[in-house]
Every structure is written in C-alpha cells, then in structure tokens.
Structure of Mitochondrial poly(A) polymerase:
Amino acid sequence: LRPIHRLLSCPGTVAADARKEEQSSGSAETGSEDRTPKKRFSEVQKERREQAQRSVLIHFPNKISEKKFLKYLSQHGPINNHFFYESFGLYAVVEFCQKESVASLQSVTRTPSMGTEAAIPFRSRCFHLKLKNASNQTSEQSCITRSNQSPPSSKKLFELLCDAESIDDQLNTLLKEFQLTEENTKLRYFTCSLIEDIAAAYFPDCAVRPFGSSVNGFGKLGCDLDMFLDLDEIGKFSDHKTLGNFLMEFQVKNVPSERIATQKILSVIGECLDHFGPGCVGVQKILNARCPLVRFSHQASGFQCDLTTNNRIALKSSELLYIYGALDSRVRALVFSIRCWARAHSLTSSIPGAWITNFSLTMMVIFFLQKRSPPILPTLDYLKSLADAEDKCIIEGHNCTFVCDLNRIKPSGNTETLELLLKEFFEYFGNFAFNKNSINIRQGKEQNKPEPSPLHIQNPFETSLNISKNVSQSQLQKFVDLARESAWILHQEVNGHPSPSSKLWGLAALLLPSVAKNVSQTKRKKKKPASERVKNLLESIKSSSTENSTNTNGT
Ligand code: GTP
Ligand code: MG
C-alpha cells in the first residue's frame, strides 16, 4: 500500500480528491469519462496553503515508536494527518487540525545550546525530536512506512515499461511513477509556507506561493520548487476601513523602478534565508537576471528552490497549464512521456542554455492536441470566451483572462489512443515548418514567425514575447532528428517489426540513449543523406498512416 491510503483527512479535501484522481487515472482512456467535479486552481492553492500553515516538520532518531510520537504531539491538539520520509535522516510532516497547535508546540520547544558554536534563536516550524531515555523507547519501535520522494531508477522504469501491456499502458505507467505524490505536493506547499514565515517578519500579510511544475500538474518527482513572494495582498483591504474625510498612507521608501524594488526585497529575504533559515543552504542571489531570483537548497525537503517576486503572470501560466492538464487524462500522460524522452536524449537540461525547456515542450504538446481532429484541447481564445466577470484578469496591461471553472469546459469527443498521439506528435514536429511558423496556443494554429529565432512559441499572455528565444538552431535540429527517428521506431513497431533491441519495446525503446547515438552517428558519417533517408521514410509513413488512423480511431 502506498502511504496515501493511510492519510486521515476528511472527505472533500484536496487529499481525498487526489485519491479519487489516482484511482481513476490509468484506467480511463480519455478524460471525458471522468465526471467528478474538478476544483479550481485558486481553491486548491488556498486549501493547500492552509494545510501547510497548520503543519510542522520534525526530524527524529530512527528508533521511535510511531504511536508514542503521535500521542506526544497530540498533547498540542488533534492531528489531521502525517507522513514520514527519509532525507539525511528520518522526518515527519505533521498536519494539525488547528493552527493554534503549532504555537502550543513552539511554546514548549527550547533553543538548543551548541557547545562551541552559537545558535541563532529563530523559532521556525522545523524541529528536532530527541529521546530523553533512548533505551526504554527502542523496545516498542514500530515499522515506520516512509513515503518515497524520488523518481524511480532507470532500471525500475525500464522494467515497468517492458512489463506493460500496451504503449498506452506504458505512457500511463510512466505518469503514475513520475507524477508528484500527495506527500511530495504537501511538502512543496509546506516548504513555501516556511519561507513565508521568514518573509512575514518584514511583510506580515505576504504569501509565498508555489508555481510552475510543482502546481501545474506537470511536475515530476525531483523537479525544482518555483515559489513567488506575493506582496499584492498587502494593504488591499484597508480601503474599506478608511472613514471620514482623511486618507491614511504609510510613509515608505521610494526607489526608481519596480525592478529595483524587487531586487531590494529579494536581497534582504535572501540574506534572512542564508542567516536564519534552518536548512536553507547554498543561497545565491541572482538579482540581475531578467526575472531576479534567490536560489537555494532546502535541506530537509531536498528541494532546489527558486524564489522570485512580482511574478503574477507566471502564476497565471501555471493555472492555465493546470486547466489544460486536468481537462483530459491523455494530456498529462503525453506531456510526461515527451518530457522524459527529451531528458533521456539530453534535449533538456537542468542548466540554463540553448536547450528547449520543459515549459516550451508542454506548450508544443498543448498546441499539437489543439490541432487534432476533433481537437483534444480548446484554444486559449476559446477559454477566454467562456470567462465571466469574476474571471477577468489584467496583469501589467496584459489580458490574462480565461475561464477558471474547469467544469464549464466541454470534454473533447476525440477518442484517439495515446499510442497514436505519441507517434503523430513525433511526425507532426518532425515535419513542422519551424523556419517560417510560430506555435500559438492562443489561436491553436500556426502563425508567421514575427522574428527569426529558430524556434518561436508565442508567450500566451505577453504575446509579443517568444518563450523559446533561447533555443539554438542546432538544438532545434537535434529535436527534429530525434522526433523523426522516434516516429520511425514507433511506426516499425506498429507494423509488427519491433526494434532490434529485443525486449525493449514501445516507449522503452524511445527512451534508450542509443536512439540519440544512432542519430548523431549517422549524422556524423553522412549528414545529408541520413536526414533525407528519415524524411523519405516519414513521407511513406504519412501516406500509410492516413489509412491506419481511421482504424485506430474506430477502436
Ligand atoms: P520544470 O522543468 O519541471 O521545473 O518545469 P517548470 O514548468 O517549473 O519550468 P521552470 O522551473 O523553468 O519555470 C517555472 C515557470 O516559470 C513555468 O512553469 C512558467 O510559468 C514560467 N516560465 C518558465 N520559462 C518561461 C519563459 O521562457 N517565459 C515565460 N513567460 N515564462 C516562463
Ligand atoms: Mg520549475
């Protein structure tokens, strides 16, 4: 049993929803079969943030009785749920039912005396639990189930993929193994709330919100934690309290621009994390970047964190991706596989550079799914047309309006299998006219490229920007070559000629680094003829797949 089944939270909570989703994912072929009402992004964020604020993190010795530990903590109030995990020692995340319990626990907690070193007496929600008398506790130790926070090893992944029953099953398996677990998601929101505690020392009404793949449904176990310090709520409600003829304003320090304000705030918060934040290590202030940030590692959770501020558009992008990912169960399965495929062939990297990013790859999959017939995903303009007054959202002059209630979006009637979609994705982008066309998810159709970058993907909200401006011609070519090669491998398999590497079939064969080697080796030997060969093969696949696709659709 996965530890998720041991959670004690009430029905109707995010945890219960995640359980339902987990039970339905994998079995359902298309999202249209899942009729459970889906929560809005803002509801999920609010609920998870509140859970995180009621939670504490406790590091403790291995020899401990779970029962006694919980009994000891429940002196401070009832516990809603808890889980254990390993990361440089054993940790527990404990969520109390009430926020007051955290203060109660803090009030009986002492600051350690350090001997030769000195402790900074910062009272966070991270604790060490020590045994007063180790010998009489060990006899009752129970076997503590640890929740896994890491992705599967390549060996395990290949085994699982090869044991799958079909390519569709392989894609769903990969999703199930790599997607963020309930516990990992809780740990992400919890880590943000710890940083919020530090920032709140200066800005009491601030919020630190996770964004990016931690919340948009496309996060893989082990992905970074993007968080943003939201200062917008500060002072929002004071308008209503102003009585009489006077208007009261705070005296503040003025700086020449919003960017400088951002840099100053992040610089101070960065210093605080470095000096006071328990377990915040390797703090780097990258304040001259286009989007200034503070990067650090949070030791206890094991997350690599990027803290930004003034980043509302990125949060809105996360909400848009969350909606796209939740509309149809094929979307996340396809995106995860494409992201894994790109990583396996070093098309993406954790180091910034001329590579395609996961964000751009996700946009490419969304665009491809908008182009299916009938479309699997609606265009952003259509989502905008469904918006009502409360969905209206203008950020820094950019119209970021779209419908926020997922349940108002009609499910797609398209029943194509994941196997077909994967193959067609590679064919589509293996033949895409990148030299003249731009990818545009707002309209769901190609546009003429407004500038000469090799890869042009329009930023959905800041429409004059290209989200893949960094991608070089050679990286794009590598993507195209690999896409063609992968389409060819899948085509061979579909036609009963499995890849020569015997047991590795379907998605497993595509994730093999040897595919990349084949491409680069053939390229090195005879550059032009090799790509010509693949192109010709694709042409022949295309003509035969038009006939095949009718069959696949019909099943
Ligand atoms: P991972 O690779 O799993 O971390 O995916 P991610 O989606 O979290 O990407 P990343 O950490 O690079 O960026 C976090 C978020 O910032 C993304 O989800 C986007 O919302 C936003 N973002 C990233 N790159 C760009 C970009 O080039 N342009 C814009 N407008 N937003 C970006
Ligand atoms: Mg990220």
In short: Residues 527-554 form the longest helix (28 residues). The longest strand covers residues 79-86. The CA atoms of residues 70 and 93 lie 11 Å apart.
